[in-house]
């Protein structure tokens, strides 16, 4: 049986928005909607970026993150604090995105790379056309990766998660994460070699 770890009490008078995730999660599990709202506000943006990377569609990403938070709200009483709240939410969001990808009739291209800087009247069209083509090539290369490699790469390179956090999100060992990242980086390096 997994023992629940309760975070230490906060300093008296600390505003709700400044409380640590663990304490907010405990309060939210007890039905405190304000604490959960702080968690949503704190983690919503990075989770949305993660979902966009995995799904490639902004509307699908918003739906996935909303579903993930609804699921988290329902499952908070089961949350054992064995992993950081952030890691737990990443796992829920990744699982939701994977479910949505499996339900699609055909896979969509992964638009994981941010758009180039805003174009203005002084920009060079040829340079932007080349950047757009390179971005499209990277998206295709990401889309061609095995799902496990793609998730590990996004969580590490886009989300900045540690190897340990990624292993918790993907429910694999750190060694497996390192192996998948190595293969993903090698594949991307080969795919992008014409662009160097």
Order of helix and strand elements from N to C terminus? HHHHHHHH
Global mean pLDDT: 83
**Quaternary status:** single chain
Rg over alpha carbons = 19 Å
How much of the sequence lies in strands comes to: under 5%
The residue fraction in helices comes out at 55-70%
Q: What overall geometry do the principal axes of the alpha carbons give?
A: elongated
* Count of individual beta strands: 0
Main sheet specs: none
Low-confidence stretches: none
Q: What is the count of helical runs? A: 8
Structural class estimated from helices and strands: mainly alpha
Give the termini separation.
Answer: 52 Å
Description:
By secondary structure, this protein is mainly α. Helices cover 65% and strands 0% of the residues. The chain has helices at residues 21-29, 33-55, 58-75, 85-103, 125-144, 147-158, 163-170, 174-191. α1 crosses α2. The longest helix is centred in the first third of the chain and has 23 residues, at 33-55. The termini are far apart. The model has no long low-confidence stretch (mean pLDDT 83).
Outline the secondary-structure elements:
Blueprint: H1 21-29, H2 33-55, H3 58-75, H4 85-103, H5 125-144, H6 147-158, H7 163-170, H8 174-191
Task: Tag the structure with descriptive keywords.
196 residues, mainly alpha
How would you summarize what this structure contains?
This protein has 196 residues and is mainly α.
């Amino acid at each position: 049986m997994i023992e629940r770890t309760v975070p230490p009490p906060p300093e008296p008078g600390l505003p709700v928005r400044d409380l640590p995730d663990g304490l907010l999660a405990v309060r939210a599990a007890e039905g405190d909607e304000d604490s959960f709202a702080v968690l949503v506000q704190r983690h919503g943006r990075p989770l949305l970026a993660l979902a966009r990377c995995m799904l490639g569609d902004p509307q699908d990403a918003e739906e996935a993150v909303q579903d993930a938070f609804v699921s988290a709200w329902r499952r908070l009483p089961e949350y054992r604090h064995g992993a950081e709240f952030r890691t737990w939410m990443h796992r829920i969001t990744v699982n939701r995105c994977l479910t949505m990808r499996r339900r699609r009739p055909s896979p969509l291209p992964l638009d994981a790379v941010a758009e180039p800087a805003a174009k203005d009247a002084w920009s060079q069209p040829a340079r932007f056309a080349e950047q757009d083509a390179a971005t499209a090539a990277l998206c295709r290369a990401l889309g061609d990766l095995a799902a496990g490699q793609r998730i590990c790469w996004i969580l590490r390179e886009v989300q900045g998660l540690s190897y340990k956090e990624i292993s918790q999100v993907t429910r694999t060992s750190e060694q497996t994460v390192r192996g998948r990242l190595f293969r993903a980086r090698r594949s991307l390096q080969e795919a992008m070699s014409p662009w160097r």
